[in-house]
Amino acid sequence: MAREGRLTIIRERVDSTTALQNVAGMTDDVAVVVEGSVLYPYIAFTARCAVPTMIGKKEITVDCLVDGVNGHGATADSFSTEQMVACDEVRLQSKITDGEARRTAQRTVTHRLGKKLKLIAPFDVQLEAAGTVYKRFWIIRIGDGRIMADSVTGNMHPLSASAA
Amino acid sequence: MFGLPFETALLVFGFPVFWILYMVVFLYVSRRWDRDSATEDDAS
Amino acid sequence: MSGTVIFFLVLYYVVVLGIGYWAMRRGGGEDLEGYLLGGRQVGPIATALTLQSTSMSGYMFLGAGGLGFAQGYWALWYAAGDIGGGLLNLSVIGRRMRKMSQMMGALTSIEYLEKRYPSPAIRLVAGVLTIFLLGFYVLAQLIAGGKGMALVTGISYPLALAIAVGIILIYTFMGGYLAVAYTDFFQSLVMLVGVMWILIAALSELGGLTAANTALSELDPTLLSVWGRGLGFEGQWGVVAGAILIFSVGYMGWPHVVTRHMAMSRPATARRAGFWATIWSLFFVPAPYLVGILAILILPGLDDPEMAIFQVAGQLLPAAVTGLVMAAIMAAIMSTADSLLLQTGSIASRDIYERFINPRASERQMVMVSRGLVVAVAVIGYVVALVEPPTVFSIVIFATSVLGSAFLPAYVCAVWWRKANTPGALASMIVGATVAFVWEYAGLVNTTELHPMLTGVVSSTITMIVVSLATQTISPVPAYILDAMGVSSKVGPIPERFLAATEFDLANEAAAVGKAIEEDSQDG
């Protein structure tokens, strides 16, 4: 939860220079420049699951992030966070209530684990709310178009064409 | 061919050849889909 | 089967269980968790092996071999489509479906259909159809498992069947945890080697392919014909067309096939998977049919054609190898049955029970429903398998025809046709399933010489087109869906290399971020 203008953001592993280098490395002929960054909200949970196996219960911990904008859930690799002061950069607002997020997280973890472990037996999922975290996406202009780069994974996605 | 009548040989070898050609065309048409390995390694 | 075979069969399971046990004891918490949850890439070969290993099941070892034995080279019409099935699906639908399912946040293939064609009726029809037909597919695996076990151990079929069902249920209820991480790869490898060994042994026993074909033609020249034994299918292009369609497009109806598309990480994966799938299929799809054909010469007295491959293995392979290969095959069959049962249970609990009967269902209640259905399917399957077992071949063809006919237009038009709307999809699913079902049941294949798959797919496609166009005004496709479909074309002038690097998982974020940036730049 933001407290007095402090935000929790996921510790980045790819900074703007690296992201730019990655992109530049994929093209010689078009101008590439980092325009800025955007902070994207997720509601974070840590799920502790006691999964039944043939030799008793196994404890598995899963992090789950619920997209704050559209409410979709996804399990996540473990991540660390840091606090920063809220400033001018573009920050998307979370529109999902905590209750909705919790239900989504429960369902996502159960579904994902159940599927991967091919389980039909019920298992306990204890969810700990970890508040709202933000992930930074670098906005990079390529020629006339834009793409965004994930500051944690470096993965990219084009952005839809804007007016200018 | 292998002691098979013509139509059967066509069935046995024709379809695999067709699918190989299809695959080649697909790989060509989608040739830009291949990621730069540099970016992929950096990402993880 | 000899004691050596059984010994090695048991040894195989001991080793597999041992690997699984060691893996869990070792804790290896993070590695295993990472592998299981993060979906880390294991490498192209291992990925390809696991991708294709789901296709190794009762059909491959019993159905395909049995058809080859019964009809000769006619059987290869079914292989013809199968070789390209994976590639076809990946190339036509893979990437787009992956993107759509991400944008709409669908967790399962049936949820995906409901989100693309908004209507509870879609989910209900799709869910019920799939459960019903998955049940048939489970039946096929039970029969395969029971017969295989009876053959290897020498015990009676009813008892062997009961043991097979029992093992499958235990597997399902205890969690396929053991098979998942470390043994899938090992198992696939054993089967791979085993299938090739059986084929090569059969060929060398007969002095090569040409010699074998010559011997076959002396026995009965129609065995080499494309029209089947005794030219039974002569001129029946309608049946041939169906045979080709079944395993090329018929796969679209199977949830586990469709779900694979939804798990793709980025476009390059489709490309790579398409390549490996084809290479694999070129070798392994025709192999079981061929072994079945060669078995005509090797096992002239065979009374159950579907046992052809097992018997050839027993006869030609060293006992130890037979034991290991049989064990791997049995494990594959049980693993397939387990996956199918889990899917059936999951669809029943999430897509039917929670969606329509009890929206406030707790996870525990849903698991109860899952379990209940799994037990029901297993019991019904056991009874049918015992009392009047159909051939594995006929079951799989039937189930794939109905599912394929029902879902092909729905999945393809979901990503390719912007006018495909809910009434169109709903009607096409119902018509396709009904036509294929009735065609099969009323034996119309014989009178019309048209395969149920052919008539089913044609009627469902026509229905989708006609109904969608007729209802465009009263039920248009919602704008947000059109957006999701058109997202890639709205992307500005970005070099193609970047489009290839698109990470599907970021689709939603990209849409929101793109909008936010636009608004921000407008605000000044």
Q: TL;DR?
A:
The complex is a heterotrimer of chains A (164), B (44) and C (524). In chain A, 17% of the residues lie in helices and 48% in strands. By secondary structure, chain A is α+β, with helices and mostly antiparallel strands.
pLDDT average of chain C, as an integer? 83
| Helical/strand content category of chain C | mainly alpha
- What is the element string of chain C, with H for helices and E for strands? HHHHHHHHHHHHHHHHHHHHHHHH
Order of H and E elements of chain B: HH
Record field, number of beta strands of chain B: 0
Helix fraction of chain C, binned, reads over 70%
Portion in beta strands of chain B: under 5%
Oligomer: heterotrimer
Radius of gyration of chain B: 19 Å
Q: Stretches of chain C where pLDDT falls below 50 for ≥5 residues?
A: 28-43, 176-181
How does this model look, in words?
- With 164 residues, chain A is an alpha+beta fold.
- Chain A has one domain (6-159).
- Chain A contains two helices and nine strands, in the order βαβββββαβββ.
- Chain A has helices at 16-24, 98-116; strands at 6-10, 32-53, 56-67, 73-76, 81-85, 90-91, 124-142, 145-150, 156-159.
- In chain A, 41% of the residues are buried.
- Chain B is built from two helices and no strands.
- Chain B is an all-alpha fold and 44 residues long.
- Chain B has helices spanning 6-29, 37-43.
- The longest helix of chain C has 39 residues, at 319-357.
- Chain C is built from 24 helices and no strands.
- With 524 residues, chain C is an all-alpha fold.
- Chain C has helices at 3-25, 29-38, 44-53, 58-71, 76-103, 109-116, 120-153, 157-174, 177-205, 209-219, 237-246, 255-262, 267-284, 286-298, 308-316, 319-357, 363-387, 392-416, 422-441, 444-448, 452-470, 479-490, 496-500, 507-523.
- Chains A and C meet through strand 2, strand 3, helix 2, strand 7 and strand 8 of A and helix 1, helix 2, helix 8, helix 9 and helix 16 of C.
